[in-house]
């Protein structure tokens, strides 16, 4: 599958470690080098604002998708390639996913988790066959990886499905893994 755009799920905060910002910037720079556009939540704050500003600085495509309520609260970015304003968070997630060919989660909070888990669940249910990755910056997502394995160990999640969520500590290998991803034929719904 050819990747044209990647949806990046991330925080409306920058977090408490500089590495969250530097690695997010590294991801955007590598996405730009590979010719990928960015789809994201449309905000101008936190890591969201950082990645949008960097892709714009480089001259790349940036599509934001933001609910009207958040746009009205003046957290919407106003200088994007395209800013799509929707009515609800549900519409936001669906539109972001429609516009992308793959998704990556950067450090974030419960909103980031919700976006990631909805995309991951959709793949498990066979609603799409797009790769989903987690950039495990400075071990941020190790507890999540452990929790998913705990679910496997207790027969609430199949190992094959867990393995479809690509965890990686490095930007280059994360993008390489997304590019090489093939949805397991044994898991495809007919």
Any chance you could write out the topology, listing elements then pairs?
Elements: E1 5-9, H1 18-33, E2 37-40, H2 46-58, E3 62-67, H3 68-72, E4 82-86, H4 89-99, E5 102-105, H5 110-124, E6 132-135, H6 142-153, H7 159-164, E7 165-168, H8 171-180
Keywords:
alpha/beta, Rossmann fold, seven-stranded parallel β-sheet
What does this molecule look like?
The chain is α/β, with parallel strands linked by helices and 190 residues long. The chain has one domain (5-139, 165-179): Rossmann fold. The chain contains 8 helices and 7 strands; from the N terminus they run E-H-E-H-E-H-E-H-E-H-E-H-H-E-H. Helix 1 (18-33) runs parallel beside helix 2. It starts with a strand and ends in a 10-residue tail after the last helix.
How are the strands of the largest sheet arranged?
Answer: 4-3-2-1-5-6-7
Rounded Rg? 16 Å
Query: Strand share of the residues?
Result: 15-25%
Measured between the Cα atoms of the first and last residue, the distance is: 19 Å
Task: Output mean pLDDT.
Answer: 94
Q: Would you count the extended β strands for me?
A: 7
Give the H and E element order: EHEHEHEHEHEHHEH
Overall domain count: 1
Q: Main beta sheet: strand number and arrangement?
A: 7 strands, parallel
Q: How many H/I helices?
A: 8
* Helix share, percent: 40-55%
Low-confidence stretches: none
Structural class: alpha/beta
CATH architecture: 3-Layer(aba) Sandwich
Instruction: Provide the CATH topology.
Output: Rossmann fold
**Overall 3D form:** globular
CATH class: Alpha Beta
């Amino acid at each position: 599958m050819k990747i044209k755009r990647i949806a990046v799920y991330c925080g409306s905060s920058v977090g408490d470690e500089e590495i969250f910002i530097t690695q997010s910037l590294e991801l955007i720079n590598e996405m730009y080098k590979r010719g990928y556009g960015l789809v994201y939540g449309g905000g101008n704050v936190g890591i969201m604002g950082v990645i949008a500003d960097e892709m714009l600085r480089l001259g790349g495509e940036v599509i934001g998708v933001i609910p009207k309520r958040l746009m009205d609260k003046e957290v919407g970015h106003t200088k994007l390639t395209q800013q799509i304003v929707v009515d609800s968070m549900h519409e936001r997630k669906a539109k972001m996913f429609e516009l992308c060919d793959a998704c990556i989660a950067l450090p974030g909070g419960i909103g980031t988790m919700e976006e990631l888990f909805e995309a991951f669940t959709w793949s498990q249910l066979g609603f799409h066959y797009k790769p989903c990755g987690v950039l495990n910056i400075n071990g941020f997502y190790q507890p999540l990886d452990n929790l998913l394995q705990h679910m496997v160990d207790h027969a609430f999640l199949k190992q094959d499905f867990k393995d479809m969520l690509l965890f990686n500590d490095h930007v280059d290998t994360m993008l390489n893994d997304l590019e090489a991803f093939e949805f397991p034929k044994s898991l495809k719904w007919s």
